[in-house]
Design brief:
With 294 residues, this protein is an alpha/beta fold. 18% of the residues lie in helices and 40% in strands.
Length: 294
């Protein structure tokens, strides 16, 4: 690996430190590469106001002018990695998260470790793991309004509505249950350790192919989170809605929801790839970062 795309959390204040680090990495590589092409760093033109040397900005939507990208270095927390998934899907390159945030559950490296991490990438000492996406389609009056892919979750939320919302859940045409609640979280295995977990949902190993449906504060105690196989086609129908609700994708409000709207959620045909460098298992990360069993 020698060509790296750079994605930085726009809110991170000390970007100068990152650029100085990249310059040092490139200079170190010149002394070790023995005439090979030097390390190259590229940034999306949509973030160009954040970049300076040694990062070159390119338009990743212009496929005729995009250099081959071997890896995406994402500097930030888990939220930044979620936003970087679009760049990963455009380039087909795997993500290496460098944690600058609080938890960094999806990250594999830190700033003090980045030099060793880049060296491992150059020397092909890594594994690539694929993470499932879900495809969320909003339908209104039987017409498709919008479609999004989520790495973590799709959420139907009551928004500013002080009361509960009513949602009818079906799986591949079969009625499951009706829920009056604050909302519904449908998560991937990756997202099972995020909002869904806070709502009482189970933890799924990230290599699984499944979807977790977790109601938010349901009115009935008998309504519990459920796990569905990835082959199912989930349908959430909003009914008896007196005020506007919201559809959230990976933590961002993307569209207001009206009464009788239907949200169809299926497994996406695409996946996002992640770099695995360390021997830390998923379960060790749970123990260390989420204090599992403590």
């Amino acid at each position: 690996m020698r060509n790296f795309a750079i994605y930085i959390n726009p809110a991170f204040a000390d970007k100068k430190n990152i650029f100085n680090l990249l310059i040092r990495l490139r200079e170190e590589d010149k002394g070790l590469s023995r005439g090979k092409a030097e390390l190259c760093f590229f940034g999306d033109i949509l973030q160009q106001e954040f970049f300076k040397d040694p990062v070159q900005t390119v338009d990743f939507d212009d496929h005729s002018n995009v250099p081959p990208i071997d890896c995406i270095l994402v500097f930030g927390g888990d939220g930044t990695i979620l936003r970087a998934k679009e760049l990963a899907l455009k380039t087909g390159a795997p993500i290496l998260g460098i944690n600058l945030g609080y938890l960094g559950f999806l990250s594999e490296s830190t700033l003090p470790e980045i030099s060793a991490s880049i060296r491992d990438l150059v020397n092909r000492k890594y594994k690539i793991l694929s993470r499932m996406l879900i495809l969320c389609t909003l339908k209104r009056d039987k017409q498709q309004i919008l479609q999004y892919e989520a790495l973590n979750d799709a959420v139907v939320y009551k928004g500013e509505n002080p009361g509960l919302i009513s949602v009818r859940i079906s799986a591949s045409g079969s009625y499951v249950f009706d829920a009056r609640c604050d909302g519904i979280v449908v998560s991937t295995p990756t997202g099972s350790t995020a909002y869904s977990l806070a709502a009482g949902g189970p933890i799924l190993a990230p290599q699984m192919k499944a979807m977790v449906l977790s109601p938010l504060n349901p009115h009935l105690l008998t309504i519990r989170p459920m796990v569905f196989p990835a082959e199912e086609k989930l349908m959430l129908k909003i009914h008896s809605l007196s005020q506007q609700a919201w559809l959230q994708i990976d933590g961002s409000n993307v569209c207001p929801i009206q009464d009788q709207d239907e949200i169809q959620i299926t497994a996406s045909s695409r996946e996002v790839k992640f770099i695995k460098l360390s021997k830390r298992t998923f379960y060790r990360i749970l123990r260390n970062k989420m204090h599992l069993g403590k």
